[in-house]
């Protein structure tokens, strides 16, 4: 029972957590519990690690293959005041879960990073892994989870490919513990096949991610060649990953917010 003495409860000092707080301070309790429970003696892998790619969107758009689209994207990010991430669809304006005194989750982390030998996101990922007692972290994009419903299928190809190449060159190359299921532009099967051919053997790539929801079913004949390519190479995973709608369509509001669209997708 929580019985207080005559002097009342002893409250801990107030700790402010904001976008400037060090990841290791935010996860200090997790670090102590990881050591207490002996997680260092177990192999622990986080296979559902969200990477907020829009923080680095100015870098990512420089990897767009089409020179005209790449130039448009770079100019858009540099010249438009308060520019959102070029080309992305989704619910970017509805992501306000971290305001009102809540712990920042998908905001830009502005904590101090002094290391310069690898990308900043590599350092932040290392800090999270070390604090949580994790051996490997499988990262994938977050706002890009909506690209499957983009009104421009070619935009999914350009942005998905740019993110993959940026991720492989800047993040996966920086630490062997960081892995990824790279993005497949599923609405254009021939481009998804090219992704498997060109990027499947790169360092840190352990499989492929199909972001849902989409208009074409996963069992459509257009995808059979792609599935065969992945199966022939062996050892690679293929993961359907639904978006996390903060405010999903009324037709699928059957459960907790953010998880309502998961069950029908994970059945595939």
Structural write-up:
- The protein is an alpha/beta fold and about 270 residues long.
- It has a single domain, classed as TIM Barrel (Alpha-Beta Barrel), CATH 3.20.20.
- The protein is about 35% helix and about 10% strand.
- The chain contains nine helices and five strands, in the order ααβαααβαβαβαβα.
- A five-stranded parallel sheet has the order 1-2-3-4-5.
- Helix 6 runs parallel beside helix 7 (about 190-200) and helix 7 (about 190-200) packs parallel to helix 8 (about 225-235).
- The longest helix is centred in the middle third of the chain and has 19 residues, at about 155-170.
| Poorly predicted parts | 1-5, 250-256, 258-268
Question: Which strand order do you get reading across the main beta sheet?
Answer: 1-2-3-4-5
Q: Domains counted in the coordinates: how many?
A: 1
The CATH architecture can be named as: Alpha-Beta Barrel
Give me the secondary-structure topology.
Layout: H1 23-26, H2 28-36, E1 45-51, H3 57-60, H4 67-79, H5 120-132, E2 136-141, H6 153-171, E3 178-183, H7 189-199, E4 205-211, H8 224-233, E5 237-241, H9 262-266
Parallel strand pairs: 1-2, 2-3, 3-4, 4-5
Concise structural overview:
With 268 residues, the chain is an alpha/beta fold.
Which terms would index this structure?
single chain, 268 residues, alpha/beta, 5 strands, disordered C terminus
